[in-house]
UniProtKB/TrEMBL annotation:
Pfam families assigned to the protein according to its UniProt record, in alphabetical order: DUF3107
Protein name in the entry: ATP-binding protein
Source organism of the structure: Micromonospora lupini str. Lupac 08
Length: 75
């Protein structure tokens, strides 16, 4: 799964590739927002952890990871 996190006052979004299911990621995000002043913590496929303060999160987008094409392709 590809998770994009928009952070307030940041020019770019954070992108995390996770091996978790969309339901698991949604539950983690929901639990983070339910707590007062907490953090949103996600772990990517390589074991790296991304921690963002909940009050700075603008949006969270959960989507299937799309394969990236390499080289020149004709569409």
């Amino acid at each position: 799964m590809e998770v994009k996190i928009g952070v307030q006052y940041a020019p770019r979004e954070l992108v995390v590739d996770s091996a978790q299911t969309p339901a698991e990621i949604e539950q983690i995000v929901t639990d983070a927002f339910a707590g007062n002043g907490g953090t949103l913590s996600l772990t990517d496929e390589k074991g790296r952890r991304v921690i963002v303060p909940v009050e700075k999160v603008a949006y969270v987008e959960i989507a299937e990871a799309s394969p990236r094409s390499v080289g020149f392709t004709v569409r």
